[in-house]
Design goal:
Oligomer: heterodimer
Order of helices and strands of chain A: EHEHEHEHEHEHHHHHH
Distance between the termini of chain B: 151 Å
Largest sheet of chain A: 6 strands, parallel
Number of helices of chain B: 20
Strand order of the largest sheet of chain B: 3-2-1-6-5-4
Radius of gyration of chain B: 49 Å
Distance between the termini of chain A: 41 Å
Shape of chain B: elongated
Strand content of chain A: 5-15%
Structural class of chain B: alpha+beta
Helix content of chain B: 40-55%
Chain lengths: 218, 696
């Protein structure tokens, strides 16, 4: 797709100085425009409505709502918008969850700025964009030592994985319910299903499991 | 003979018999008789000769001497060293004939005198008389008396002594039998006592074995006894002993005598290792003792013999106490079996304790590494969060149009950032916990790996410990993922570094170990290598050992070096892309724009060019594609592969891969990965044949 207008970019990252740096870098281009910044995914849909970005750069390790959940919401409400994950960590599970949630690419904060700029352009054109680090791992058939656990995790639905991530972040059932716009009873049902599937029957152990699996950073 | 005289003789004989009855043992009874007869007969010296244990000869028993001169002492001592067979010498002749003999004078040519009589003359004796102690079935001992002067035969004295000995003979024999019964009872007591204590769990077995050896020697009147333990390798070691020289501690079942004993079902006595004996040379264990004879019984165990019980004498002797030896050996078997079980248990306990300690150490190391990984992860996160905006700002500053000098400074800052980025990459390897679900190639090229990680590992050492490396060119990759290798080497460098007490140097060196392995060593390369115990390195390298074993290699620990022996990675473990000879062309026809973009991006990263259908080797289509078209595409070239996203139309085309949920891009990625792997397995020959048309 050839876009005549400039590509509008929204950044969601809890580090304001990072957003400012990106803003400065995008300002050097003729075709990209930094239109705004959010420190969490809270209010993302409203912000998108307001700023009308073409591309959203989304961090994964932030306080506030679950970014994967936010990605799914964005995909549902704004199907033409391209979300690119921009994370300091490249983890298989993050990558897999991001692709499942509707992202159009996975970028590392260790990438060079010019690579990020080009990745934003690719996403805007409707192409996927992977960091070289991510790209290399895409073609590794074996999943190394985490295979057994990965298969246990893969038994969870996307929603259950979201709930598990939020549990791992120490959120209460009420908080999770608020973030997911579901009732606490629905959250309980998800939690029960997760416990049965993982054969873990203690909430503290669920938190430990989520941390161990790097669903959340400790 | 007058009545008075007869009455006096009877009283004297009764007194003799009474003393025999009250005597503590046979020898003291005989000694008492000897003394009284010597005095009554006016002799200066008297000695008793009694049959040896095996009954083949006579050995000297009790002695009585009125004089304590050196000559007499020597004469008595020489007698102890002698033995007479029946018929041999004065003693043997009297024993054989049962008749007394009188030697009026010991004078005459030396050559004509029997040896003992010559010795008697040298001791100052001039006359002698020998009397048998008779029982119904023959003599049981011979008493020899010596006088200081030549003395004519005294028939009265001969008669008196003969009568007295005939009278006391039964009493002496009774005493001998009584003592024999007592000895047997004592033997039973010994066996029962040792046996009961062997069953008592509170008994200290080594002490019991020592006591048993001492009792065996004492009970059998032997010079020494030992309990030998049979080791698994066939060695016989002295486990407990009495009267045994400390130097004689080990032998082997290969010694003919011991081999014979182990094969025999009952104790084996050797009367004399010299001469004819049983034809056995004395075992080395006995030589140091000067043993001339021995008896040995097998100490039995449940499954196999546990050892041997030996009693030895320095004189030729036939040990006849088979029953005692066997019974004692059997109870010792109980004790030794228990002892062995306890030692095995103790050994097993020690092994398990060591294993547990190693596993704790491994856990501690894993915890430490996990903590380091978490820390490194946080640092990497923050570094990336800082570096990215900083580099963005640099771009902005540069774009603002700077004077040349400032631009050079900016270039310098970029150089510093490059170094920082390298450090972040290394940190990422440390930050990746081997247990994380993070995919890495299952192989590592050591030289580039070290370039990323070496500087970082140096930080794990004290400032006065240098870290250097030597990696030759052309090393093959090793079959281990970089994070795991990093953690293992970090652990080894850290552990070795901690053993340095002062400044030093650690060298990490890699070298081929045959064609199939690479040896990666971490060594103390200080000019004066530190002396260190092996044990801490052994204990604290458990994690690295687990890593090496899991990779198919091993870990060698030396005093100054720890080396990982890692297998060379098979070619398949290297990240691979399609061979140049196969045209990397794919056609993608998908309605879902995101899925199409995803597949395009993936295939592009593997070097695929997106081409029209007829030029492609791989096609990714919607499941709704006409099955006939799929069949046609596949039939045109056997190298081709098709992936259908979404449920295919019926009938499903054979030979195509299918992902039923087109939106499940993770499943698409995995399936494509498998298909590309399959394409990689196409041989060059088949590519030449089948893919020729595709190249044109």
């Amino acid at each position: 797709m050839i876009r005549s207008e400039r590509t509008r970019v929204l950044c969601v990252d809890d580090h304001e100085f990072l957003a400012d740096g990106l803003k400065a870098r995008l300002a050097l281009t003729d075709d990209l425009e930094f239109v705004g910044w959010l420190p969490t995914a809270e209010g993302l849909l409203t912000k998108i409505k307001e700023m009308r970005p073409h591309v959203v750069l989304l961090d994964l390790e932030m306080p506030g709502p679950d970014p994967f959940e936010a990605m799914e919401d964005v995909r549902r409400r704004f199907p033409d918008l391209k979300v690119l994950v921009l994370s300091a960590h490249v983890r298989d599970h993050y990558f897999e969850s991001a692709v499942a949630a509707g992202s159009w690419g996975y970028l590392s904060k260790g990438d060079k700025p010019e690579f990020l700029v080009e990745a934003i352009r690719k996403a805007a054109r409707g192409e996927f964009a992977f960091s070289p680090e991510v790209e290399e791992r895409c073609w590794i058939p074996s999943r190394g030592g985490g295979e057994a656990r990965t298969s246990r995790l893969s038994g969870l639905t996307n929603r259950e994985q979201q709930v598990l991530r939020l549990i791992g972040r120490g959120m209460s059932r009420a908080e999770i319910a608020r973030v997911l716009h579901r009732s606490p009873k629905t959250v309980d049902a998800h939690q029960t299903a997760i416990m049965n599937k993982l054969d873990i029957h203690d909430r503290v152990d669920l938190v430990r499991y989520a941390i161990r699996e790097r669903l959340v950073e400790p | 003979m007058s009545d008075n005289l007869a009455s006096s003789r009877e009283a004297w004989i009764r007194a003799l018999v009474s003393r025999i009855t009250l005597a503590r043992g046979y020898k003291s009874a005989l000694g008492g008789v000897l003394k009284r007869l010597c005095r009554a007969g006016g002799w200066s010296y008297a000695e008793a000769w009694i049959p040896t244990h095996d009954g083949t000869g006579l050995k000297m028993g009790p002695v009585f001497a009125r004089s304590r001169s050196d000559e007499v002492g020597r004469f008595r001592q020489r007698g102890r060293e002698l033995g007479f067979r029946p018929g041999q010498g004065l003693v043997g002749q009297v024993f054989l004939s049962g008749m007394p003999r009188w030697v009026e004078t010991l004078g005459g040519g030396e050559n004509e005198l029997p040896r003992r009589q010559a010795l008697a003359r040298d001791a100052g004796f001039e006359s002698a008389a020998a009397f048998p102690v008779l029982l119904n079935d023959g003599p049981t001992a011979v008493l020899v008396f010596y006088g200081d002067e030549a003395r004519e035969r005294d028939p009265a004295l001969v008669d008196k002594t003969g009568v007295a000995l005939a009278a006391v003979g039964p009493a002496l024999e009774q005493k001998r039998v009584e003592m024999s019964v007592r000895a047997q009872a004592r033997q039973h007591e010994v066996v029962a006592n040792i046996g009961l204590r062997a069953l008592d769990r509170s008994t200290d077995i080594p002490s019991l074995l020592g006591e048993a050896a001492a009792l065996a020697a004492r009970t059998l009147d032997a010079d020494a006894a030992a309990v030998l333990e049979l080791q698994k390798d066939g060695r016989l070691t002295v486990r407990a002993s009495a009267g045994w020289p400390k130097e004689a501690l080990e032998s082997t079942i290969a010694e003919p005598y011991f081999a014979h004993v182990l094969a025999a079902e009952k104790p084996v006595a050797v009367p004399s290792f010299r001469g004819n004996g049983n034809g056995f040379p004395p075992p080395s264990l006995f030589v140091l003792l000067g043993a001339r004879s021995a008896a040995t019984a097998v100490v039995p165990g449940r499954a196999r013999p546990l050892g041997l019980l030996c009693v030895v004498a320095r004189e030729p002797r036939r040990f006849v106490e088979d029953a005692f030896l066997r019974a004692l050996a059997q109870v010792l078997g109980v004790a030794m079996e228990r002892d062995r079980a306890e030692r095995d248990l103790e050994h097993e306990r020690a092994r398990l304790a060591a294993e547990l300690e190693a596993s704790h150490e491994e856990l501690r190391q894993a915890d430490r590494l996990r903590a380091i990984a978490t820390l490194a992860s946080g640092i990497t996160h923050d570094m990336n969060n800082v570096m990215l905006p900083a580099l963005c700002r640099l771009d902005a500053i540069e774009a603002a149009g700077l004077p040349a000098a400032a631009a050079r400074e900016i270039e310098g800052v970029r150089g510093a950032f490059d170094k920082l980025r390298k450090l972040a990459r290394g940190l990422q390897l440390v930050a990746t916990n081997p247990e994380d679900g993070v995919s890495f190639p299952a192989s590592t090229r050591l030289e580039p790996w070290w370039r990323e990680i070496g500087g970082l590992l140096a930080l794990a050492l004290r400032r006065d410990v240098q870290l250097t490396a030597a990696f030759p060119d052309g090393l093959p990759p090793v079959a281990a993922a970089p994070p795991q290798l990093t953690h293992a080497v970090l652990g080894l460098v850290h552990v070795l570094g901690e053993t340095f007490e002062g400044p030093g140097r650690i060298l990490v060196r890699a070298e081929p170990d045959g064609a199939r392995f690479v040896r990666l060593s971490v060594a103390d390369a200080s000019p004066d290598p530190h002396r260190r115990a092996l044990e801490p390195l052994e204990k604290r390298t458990a994690g690295a050992r687990s890593f090496a074993v899991a990779a198919g290699g091993s870990l060698d620990v030396g005093p100054n070096e720890v080396a990982l022996r890692l297998p060379v990675a098979p070619a398949a473990a290297e990240p691979r892309f399609l061979p140049e000879s196969l045209p990397r062309r794919a056609e993608i026809q998908l309605k879902d724009a995101r899925a199409a973009a995803f597949v395009t991006s993936l295939l592009a990263s593997a070097g695929f060019e997106i081409t029209p259908r007829d030029k492609s080797v791989l096609a990714v289509w919607d499941g709704s594609e006409d099955p006939a078209a799929v069949r046609r595409y596949l039939s045109e070239n056997t190298s081709r592969r098709v992936l259908l996203l979404g449920a295919p139309r019926s009938p499903a085309p054979r030979g195509a891969s299918i992902v039923n949920e087109p939106g499940n891009l993770e499943a698409v990625r995995r399936t494509l990965g498998t298909m590309v792997e399959e394409l990689l397995e196409i041989t060059d020959d088949s590519i030449r044949t089948d893919a020729g048309s595709l190249r044109r």
